[in-house]
Amino acid sequence: MDDQEWLATRFEENRAHLRAVAFRVLGSRSDAEDAVQEAWLRLSRSDTSDVENLGGWLTTVVARVSLNMLQTRKSRREEPAGARGLEEIAGPGDGAHPEDEALLADSVGPALLLILDTLDPAERLAFVLHDMFAVPFDEIAPIVGRSPAAARQLASRARRRVQGGDTSAGADRVRQREVVAAFLAASRNGQFDALLALLDPEVVLRADEATVRMGAAAEVLGASAVAQTFSGRARTAQPVLVDGEAGAMWAVDGRPRVVFGFTITNGRIVGIEMMSDPAILRGLDLETLTS
Q: Of 223, 43, 22, whose CA–CA distance to 129 is shortest?
């Protein structure tokens, strides 16, 4: 197998994921397919010999292409994608895989599409990448041309808009707080099996550079490894709202030292972000909750 065939095989392995990212950002199946095709063209023309994570590289490319398409659509004042997306969700397009279409329809309903269409392109991209795909803000930041703290604020503003238009958001926020509270309790008590039950099998734990300097691993993959990392720890962590979302904080003398951001999907934790950088912490809106 030559290099081009190897790249084509790897691209096909990532195609469904890339299509899902593009569809959630653009709200249009046809536009999503165009974005995915553009990603393939860029891959075929690029030297990726130094790329360690090809899937992550492709996700970044699709995100950049999708953001450009959103910005062009806005500048031309085209018909909102939601209007097209409502029809596209209703039936499969040419060449689409039925299982992929079902997943997309379940995760991006007509109401959400209409709300997403009211967002600024950068807000929409930050929200989709972080809240739906657990992409950390330090990877989102260069795509939207902002600092990680500013990217977090973009996602936070988008999240508030989305939740304001979703009558089920209140119940979902309560459930997320319950999941985080259960996670902290299981961590303190060393309840490994309880931690596993709360974690998605593919959960990703990431730490910023400041937290790594404190002794944390930069990245931990998988439920078992993440559960082992937290089991018997987090004894002094307390539940907080991080930019309005369920999270946790370790504070010393009332000052936050480490903040834990959680990404929760379908009642399970799919991503945990550990932040200690003072510049990032200063940009967070933290509200302490009762344990």
A: 22
Do 197 and 145 lie in one domain? The reply is no
What is the pLDDT, as a whole number, of residue 270?
87
What residue type is 47 in one-letter code? D
In this structure, are 31 and 115 located in the same domain? yes
Q: What is the mean pLDDT of each run of 10 residues along the chain (291 residues)?
A: 80 90 84 91 87 90 93 66 45 44 47 75 92 89 88 86 60 80 92 94 89 90 94 85 84 88 85 86 78 51
Q: Are 291 and 272 in contact (CB under 8 A)?
A: no
Query: What does pTM read for this prediction?
Result: 0.56
Distance CA 153, CA 159 (A): 10
The answer to whether 22 touches 43, Cβ cutoff 8 Å, is no
Which neighbouring-strand residues pair with 24? none
Q: What is the CATH classification number for the domain harbouring 216?
A: 3.10.450.50
Q: Which domain holds residue 119?
A: 3-164
Model pLDDT, residue 88: 46
Alpha-carbon gap, residue 234 to 190, rounded angstroms: 10
CATH of the domain at 145: 1.20.140.160
What's the total number of domains in the chain?
A: 2
Q: Are residues 144 and 173 in the same domain?
A: no
In degrees rounded to 5, what are phi and psi of residue 216? -80, 155
- Phi/psi-derived region of residue 46, left when phi > 0, alpha when psi is between -120 and 50, beta in every other case: beta
CA atoms of 40 and 62, how far apart (whole Å): 9
Among candidate residues 22, 96, 28, the one with its CA nearest the CA of residue 61: 22
